[in-house]
Amino acid sequence: MASSVNPTVRRRRLGQELRRLRELKGMTAEEVAERLLVSQSKISRLENGRRSISQRDVRDLCGVYEVEDHRIVDSLMQMAKDSRQQGWWHSFGDIPYSVYIGLETDAASLRVYDPQVVPGLLQTRQYAEALIAGALPETAPADIDKRVQVRMKRQERISAPDNPLRLWTVLDESALRRAVGNRALMREQLEYLVEQSHLPHVTVQVIPFDMGAHPGLNGQYAILEFPDAADSSVVYIEGVTSDLYLEKANDVQKYSVMYEHLRAQALNVEQSRQFIADIAKEYAR
């Protein structure tokens, strides 16, 4: 059964604390790996929260770092236990981007730039079905349906009555012009996009073609920020076979500055709504 504990966030916080303890001890990941007779990559994966951490791992690492305060050890052991629980998304089976879902579930705000398609959190069910089927032509219908269900479940963060996700989306005009499915489906999708943009915690802006070159030409990315100050922001870049998560302050800063340029070059909110509405009318012809 899925737990209310977010295992992705627990792993991430635990990894950050283990890295802090290692650095306080003045040890490198390679030195720790040699002491425990494990690979350096395992220590790195434990610290970046990309793999589950067992209580035995925590116990061994605390031994290497000579942590004598039993309260600290017990706290870290509990975090390791929590990190092995299941989030709501695990009930859908193997989801390729489950790490991202875990982060998104706990995020306070999300800034997204997408040059190709409407972002998942703002997609209609029909658009999502057509998009996934087109993007993954060899995927079985049952798996497409599972991915759509997960996408619809993720959207509950937008409609949550308490503490909804703060979403800021910048779209390239091509995302509106790309006819996913049929024309009626696209009209419905764009009308829904306008409707969602009126929510107080959702902002949608568009960069039209005539804006020319802009900082988003390198591709899609998202910046996640969290309510707990101990959780650093994350830049997420989706890949075909693997995803990239950037957490270094310098990397996050660069992408944040780039996003500010995108927002500045895009149409303002009212202009963007009108722009989207006009294209929706074109699909009605």
Fold topology:
Elements: H1 7-25, H2 29-36, H3 40-47, H4 55-64, H5 70-83, H6 98-106, E1 109-114, H7 125-135, H8 141-154, H9 156-159, E2 166-172, H10 173-177, H11 183-197, E3 202-207, E4 221-225, E5 234-237, E6 244-246, H12 249-265, H13 269-283
Parallel strand pairs: 1-2, 2-3
Antiparallel strand pairs: 1-4, 4-5, 5-6
Helix pairs in contact: 1-5, 2-3, 4-5, 7-8, 11-13
Gross morphology: elongated
Largest sheet: 6 strands, mixed
Structural class: alpha/beta
> Helical amount among residues, as a percent range?
40-55%
Q: Which range does the strand content fall in?
A: 5-15%
Number of strands: 6
Separation of the first and last Cα atoms: 48 Å
Number of domains: 2
Helix-strand topology string = HHHHHHEHHHEHHEEEEHH
Overall CATH class of the largest domain: Alpha Beta
H/I helix tally: 13
In CATH, the architecture of the largest domain is 2-Layer Sandwich
Mean pLDDT: 88
Give your account of this protein's structure.
The protein contains 13 helices and six strands. The chain is of the alpha/beta class and 285 residues long. The chain has two domains: 9-83, lambda repressor-like DNA-binding domains (434 Repressor (Amino-terminal Domain), Orthogonal Bundle); 88-284, 2-Layer Sandwich (Endonuclease, Chain A), CATH 3.30.870. The protein has a six-stranded mixed sheet, sandwiched between helices. The model has no long low-confidence stretch (mean pLDDT 88).
